[in-house]
Write a structure and sequence with these properties.
Two copies of one chain form a homodimer.
Chain A: H1 5-26, H2 34-65, E1 68-69, E2 86-92, H3 98-109, E3 115-121, H4 128-136, E4 140-145, H5 167-180, E5 192-195, E6 201-202, H6 206-211, E7 216-218, E8 221-224, E9 227-234, E10 240-244, E11 260-263, H7 264-269, H8 284-290, E12 298-300, H9 302-305, E13 310-311, H10 321-328
Parallel strand pairs in A: 2-3, 2-5, 3-4, 7-12
Antiparallel strand pairs in A: 1-4, 5-11, 6-13, 7-11, 8-9, 9-10
Chain lengths: 339, 339
Amino acid sequence: MRIHVGTFVICVLCLLLFNALALNLLSPGSYDCTTQCSDTQNQLKESINRLKQEILTLKQKCSTNESTSSLHDSHSPSLVPHIPVIHMITPTYSCWTQKADLTRLSQTLMHIKNLHWIVVEDSDNKTGLVARFLKKCNLKYTHLNVRTKKELQRNSKEPVWRKSRGVEQRNLGLNWLRRNHMTMPGKGKGDVVYFGDDDNTYDIELFDEIRATRKLSVWPVGICGGLRWEGPVCDDKGTVVDWHRSWAKLRPFPIDFAGFAIKLDVVLQFSTAEINPDSRIGWLESDFLSQMVQPSDAEGRASNCKKVLVWHTRTEKPKTKDEERLIAQGQPSDPLIET
Amino acid sequence: MRIHVGTFVICVLCLLLFNALALNLLSPGSYDCTTQCSDTQNQLKESINRLKQEILTLKQKCSTNESTSSLHDSHSPSLVPHIPVIHMITPTYSCWTQKADLTRLSQTLMHIKNLHWIVVEDSDNKTGLVARFLKKCNLKYTHLNVRTKKELQRNSKEPVWRKSRGVEQRNLGLNWLRRNHMTMPGKGKGDVVYFGDDDNTYDIELFDEIRATRKLSVWPVGICGGLRWEGPVCDDKGTVVDWHRSWAKLRPFPIDFAGFAIKLDVVLQFSTAEINPDSRIGWLESDFLSQMVQPSDAEGRASNCKKVLVWHTRTEKPKTKDEERLIAQGQPSDPLIET
């Protein structure tokens, strides 16, 4: 059978035209779908987040099962009865300055009565370095670990503020307390929770303020939020009347983790309250606290917030290129000497 | 009297010729004077250094006269007799992290018996902040000050290694000890001198090693000299058989100030030994120690130099631009709140 060349050409042209029309009709650009699309995307994102949370909870559960604790260990210092225990949650990760930071902080904590130090490593397994360190540090401690999910890990070139460190570690600490408070002296009644990073600086006076917490205590933090100090402004009775901060001014709690302490009772009452790694930058603390308390619950401490007793110091990241050079030459600093 | 024009011209030409010859004979370029020149320059430089040292000594004398000390103060903790005192010399300067660094260090030192803390401010006058801090810190202390000479001050853009901080402050501490040892318990016999910066990290175990010093003790320092650790390598008897370092390998004492302690007796015996601000970069410690001891005098401590008990940590310089913005707007962080 033969087709006339003219027809053939016309057919081909028609097909092309039809195809073009069909594509045009079916293509997403042919009608406005922005709203629908973003709704769907949001739903998907929410699902992902729910799943992530679930995985996190499971991970935490697994990790908690193998937590190392000296809380009830007869070799570690004993807790004085009838004085609230301060549960201080400290995330930590492997780096050149880790042991130095932990050493320095532990020596401050050695001055504090009834301190229970919950050290949570950002690692797949508990490291020998931290395990040995804690065993020797003469403090009541619990040693936990959870590795930060890959998508939340900050690479070395990203700025510090881009991704928050220690989120999953703090959550693990909270959940450990929720699961273990019944075995604590007095079932943890009256105890207080405080988040304390390993390179911050704490005046030992701060711990008296922490221990006196009734629901939520707040105080200024030195060298924080880009300012000489950031935090609550109080009247003479300790009522918070304003917040001193330079950015993200809409935050209901414009405060760093080092700037508040919360009663363990409250944490137990709101058993699902967690720190959300997907919070907007700078909103971690506000989003977390808003699940449990109101800004009006905040009680100003440290001489009505006129005293700075904690500083958001950071340990400078050391330069490692000389060591790398020696490693390349097969002559690293003796690895048997722990630093 | 008239001169013949011809003669005049000849005379002028002769004079010019003579002048040229004389200049040629006297000019430094006419013979090779490199050696002589550099000798002269060196002599001049030496003189300048001597004068500088003299000025420094005078300055120190003036400052010492008005030193604040709680060494014999009945309100500060008392020294236990028959245990050597550790005189720890700490230079400090005004910056955002100063109070945090001093707070953190003081809380480590509070664990140490018979510790005399010599805090030397880099300032024209003693600051209220440091004076108040020391009064409250519950340690035996002496408060001194000397401002670093202008030519030795590092500007904010110069790299850290370019100019050494704390030289004149450490020298003032040494000279204070030389002048005051006779009024100390046991006249300072058996006491030990240690240089400890305010942002280093010290394991409290280190102070047992310091106190046991016989002449010169040495040990490795963590995160130092570009390496994971820098310092002596010892045999099983604590004899230093090598030094682990990555640069300036010719130094007789390739060690940081944090890596040694010296008996006060030795410092008293060599009464003119001082730290020289004009030492080559990295040679401060070596040039200082070489005035009093030999490398063979060094005794390796801290489990034969197998343990790191001090880290050369640095506190990160905070970003201040938000505060500067608020200051420009006339709304600085409340200056009455001390940080």
